[in-house]
Design a protein that fits this description.
CATH class: Alpha Beta
Number of domains: 1
Largest sheet: 5 strands, mixed
CATH topology: YaeB-like fold
Shape: globular
Order of helices and strands: EHHEEEE
CATH superfamily: RelE-like
Strand content: 25-35%
Number of strands: 5
Number of helices: 2
Structural class: alpha+beta
Amino acid sequence: MARVVFTPTAAGHLRRLRAYIAQDSPDAARAMVQRIRADAARLGQFPEMGRIVPEYREPAIREVIVGPYRVVYRFRADRNVVQVIGVIHGSRVLPLPAD
């Protein structure tokens, strides 16, 4: 089983999306973050379950869709680690991966 870690960038995305949703509903914000974290944790068992991100066309960079969010991650098989590198709303343009 691979270890799942959130990069500082992805952790910041989660904090900001939680704060944004919490303006209308703290309960909904908490639920969305929990759902994203749960789906990300599943990547430890199935690191290649997500699709290759079409914008990057790099087999190691994949994504899973959680509600309206794209959870973008990099699977590093040599280190047996899944790095969540971003949590981006589906309507936004993806930046280049840096972490």
